[in-house]
User: Which sequence fits this backbone?
């Protein structure tokens, strides 16, 4: 007798921070946590853009796994037990934020994005009141060659939201990453001044998706650069249509 | 190509060999070539030509690596059996040969004499203690001659797999052999193969990772340069087993000789019907293409390697999904290192059990190591798993030069660690090395004597990791740079206890949080040297500390530098 084929699993159950939750196969830990109002920190993840998994703030502990897993890129499984807010994770997240602050020249008081910055907000949320890593004070440039926008590498955290939104949503692929390691920089076209770019459509999505004061509109003074994020929920729709 | 045709090629080649009286094998791998072995071959051939009829029965042949690189260029002469004198066939190896020796070697060989002054004894442990599987043909066959490889039994594993075995049988043999990934991870090869085989897809890929980049490691280069057909055979068997029809060899552009020989080997295999369509009159098709790496160490990481082959920036992505289910161009992809691929033909020829009979319970078979640094016998060795470090260093490697004392051996490159003298009797297998705070890695062994500073060693590897970090994830990009700054401060003896504590903290974060293996293992050289040689770190601090080997406060330099970072 032929064995009866079982129907595919429609839902699964798992535990996040001691709360029993249901999930759909194919969802990530991040998706499920959000569905159940459990907040997991993160800077590089944006709905509708490819998953990058680079900021490492959304790392969570999954029981039975030796390594920490990124919530944004890990698919859920039946019976998975996830911890998103342990003492160890809090320590690591604070350190990652400190690393970002120490890496470039993030001086909030004079930054146009002061008060409207995801990095700053994340630092406050995670309780980073002090950076005990030595500041690296690198000599990095500011590209003001574009008519309307400015790229300030001093504030860049290399989350590549701009690179992804430019390539995947706008389709211009002006933005990219050049160099490697600590010398990696966001570049325009083949590392030319932004203003000379033949591909940039000046749509401004990169500016408004940027979590920090790295991509800003010109003519803004300290704390004046408020990003318009109202278009973000439509990124997924734009991609699907 | 049928089994009979293959057999015929082997017989023909053997017959041609038998026509010769003498064979002079000259090493033409990168190390000996850098010391003019090409010129030696030219001079020898010219001399033989001058001799006319007398020189016709002697052949000078370019072969691959003979292993003992520190004694190169190496030349080996095959003397035939001399029945009148009651002597069997013998091989004589000559060491440190330069073009000036070419003529005298040719003269002596043609007359059936040897040159005692130049002889490199081959009854020393360096040669007798090895167990050669991956390197079985290195130094014997001409890497640019497919007939030579076939005469040595090459491609018989592939032909028998295709004609006598099902893909499942092949995977079964590999599983039984207990072979584990030789690129460093040690993942069971059979399990990886069956995962790819069981994933349904219209297209699957096989990739050979030849992006060897650990400082002090040159195993893969030697295999590629000495026996390229072996990789092709291994990959084709892998393709048959997992159901892939297309393969890539990702080889670093810094290995021009390996690339040249691989290209030649691929075109020869195509010509002989060992690559292409309907191999051995079966429906199995297989093609291999080369892809050259552009000098990024991180492209040895499998997801970065895939991105690079796809023409993208070579950066890793989070796993899972693993390449076995979602790999090259989104298709299931089998990625194995050169040495793993090179073991496959042997397994199909002699069976999985034969490999499983060698080694320890959990680490089967042999491993190729590159001995570098402060050791008498510098070069390439292949030893059974489970051999002790002491045997490798003091017997096979003949100890430390100039009567110096052994201090530590660094294994596993920038992902590995340093093992001190009191661990020398430890068996070399995946688990023991991990327990000792290092890894098997791809097989580089850098031996250090008492003159090496362990803090400096850690600094060297951290500099390497910092330079090679792709910059994608924060802990690796910033962590390696911060750790390097601290280690440089320690080398300059201007660090404090606070810096040491910070270094430990950074090690922890970088190890736990980094996206790929490069960052996750970058702290290992620091952690292992901290574990075994903490006193050297304490010595590298300036004053104000108490503890083992702490520098008395009076010895600190006046005007301590500003603890803030300077750039």
Assistant:
């Amino acid at each position: 007798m032929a064995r009866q084929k079982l129907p595919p699993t429609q839902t699964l159950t798992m535990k996040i921070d001691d709360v029993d939750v249901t999930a759909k196969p194919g969802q990530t830990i991040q998706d499920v946590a959000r569905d159940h109002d459990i907040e997991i920190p993160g800077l590089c993840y944006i709905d509708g853009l490819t998953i990058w998994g680079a900021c490492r703030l959304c790392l969570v502990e999954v029981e039975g796994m030796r390594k920490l897993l990124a919530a944004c890129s890990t698919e859920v499984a039946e019976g998975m037990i996830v911890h998103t807010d342990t003492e160890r994770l809090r320590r690591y997240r604070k350190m990652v934020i400190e690393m970002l602050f120490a890496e470039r020249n993030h001086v909030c008081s004079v930054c146009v994005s002061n008060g409207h910055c995801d990095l700053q907000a994340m630092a406050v949320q995670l309780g980073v009141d002090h950076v005990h890593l030595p500041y690296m004070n690198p000599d990095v440039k500011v590209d003001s060659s574009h008519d309307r926008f400015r790229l300030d590498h001093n504030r860049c955290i290399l989350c590549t939201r701009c690179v992804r939104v430019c390539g995947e949503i706008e389709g211009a692929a002006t933005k990219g990453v050049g160099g490697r390691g600590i010398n990696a920089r966001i570049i325009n076209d083949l590392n030319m001044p932004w203003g000379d770019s033949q591909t940039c459509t000046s749509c401004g999505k990169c500016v408004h998706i940027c979590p920090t004061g790295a991509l800003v509109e010109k003519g803004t003074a300290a704390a004046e650069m408020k990003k318009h994020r109202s278009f973000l929920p439509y990124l997924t729709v734009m991609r699907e249509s | 190509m049928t089994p009979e045709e293959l057999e015929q090629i082997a017989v023909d080649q053997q017959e041609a060999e038998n026509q010769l009286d003498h064979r002079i094998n000259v090493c033409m791998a990168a190390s000996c070539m850098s010391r003019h072995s090409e010129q030696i071959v030219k001079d020898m051939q010219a001399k033989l030509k001058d001799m006319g009829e007398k020189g016709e029965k002697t052949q000078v042949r370019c072969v691959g690596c003979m292993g003992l690189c520190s004694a190169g260029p190496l030349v080996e002469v095959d003397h035939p059996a001399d029945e009148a004198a009651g002597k069997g066939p013998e091989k004589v190896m000559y060491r440190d040969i330069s073009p000036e020796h070419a003529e005298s070697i040719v003269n002596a060989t043609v007359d059936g004499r040897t040159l005692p002054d130049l002889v490199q004894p081959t009854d020393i442990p360096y040669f007798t203690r090895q167990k050669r599987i991956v390197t079985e043909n290195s130094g014997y066959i001409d890497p640019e001659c497919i007939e030579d490889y076939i005469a040595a039994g090459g491609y018989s594993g592939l032909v028998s797999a295709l004609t006598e075995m099902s893909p499942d049988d092949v995977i079964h043999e590999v599983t039984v052999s207990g072979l584990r990934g030789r690129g460093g991870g040690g993942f069971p090869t059979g399990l990886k193969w069956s995962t790819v085989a069981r994933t349904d897809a219209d297209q699957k890929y096989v990739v050979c990772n030849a992006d060897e980049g650990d400082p002090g490691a040159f195993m893969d280069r030697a295999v590629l340069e000495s026996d390229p057909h072996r990789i092709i055979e291994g990959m084709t068997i892998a393709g048959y087993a997992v159901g892939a029809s297309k393969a890539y060899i990702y080889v670093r552009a810094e290995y021009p000789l390996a690339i040249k020989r691989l290209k030649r080997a691929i075109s020869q295999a195509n010509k002989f019907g060992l690559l292409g369509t309907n191999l051995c009159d079966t429906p199995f098709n297989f093609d291999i293409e080369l892809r050259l790496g552009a000098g990024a160490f991180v492209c040895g990481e499998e997801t970065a390697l895939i991105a690079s082959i796809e023409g993208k920036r070579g950066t890793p992505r989070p796993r899972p999904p693993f390449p076995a289910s979602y790999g090259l161009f989104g298709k299931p992809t089998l990625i194995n290192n050169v040495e793993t691929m090179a073991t496959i033909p042997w397994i199909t020829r002699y069976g999985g059990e034969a490999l499983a009979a060698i080694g320890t319970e959990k680490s089967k078979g042999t491993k190729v190591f590159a001995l570098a640094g402060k050791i008498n016998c510098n070069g390439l060795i292949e030893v059974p798993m489970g051999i002790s470090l002491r045997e490798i260093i003091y017997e096979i490697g003949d100890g430390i030069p100039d009567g110096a004392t052994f201090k530590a051996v660094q294994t596993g490159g920038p992902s590995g660690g340093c093992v001190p003298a009191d661990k020398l009797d430890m068996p070399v297998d995946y688990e023991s090395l991990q327990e000792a705070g290092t890894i098997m890695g791809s097989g580089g062994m850098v031996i250090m004597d008492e003159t090496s500073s362990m803090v400096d060693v850690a600094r060297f590897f951290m500099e390497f990791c910092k330079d090679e970090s792709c910059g994608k994830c924060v802990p690796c990009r910033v962590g390696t740079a911060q750790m390097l700054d601290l280690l440089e401060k320690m080398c300059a003896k201007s660090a404090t206890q606070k810096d040491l504590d910070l270094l430990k903290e950074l090690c922890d974060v970088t190890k736990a949080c980094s996206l790929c293996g490069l960052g996750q293992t970058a702290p290992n050289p620091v952690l292992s040297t901290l574990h075994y040689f903490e006193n050297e770190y304490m010595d590298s601090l300036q004053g104000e500390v108490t503890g083992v080997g702490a520098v008395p406060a009076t010895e600190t330099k006046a005007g301590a530098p500003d603890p803030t970072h300077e750039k």
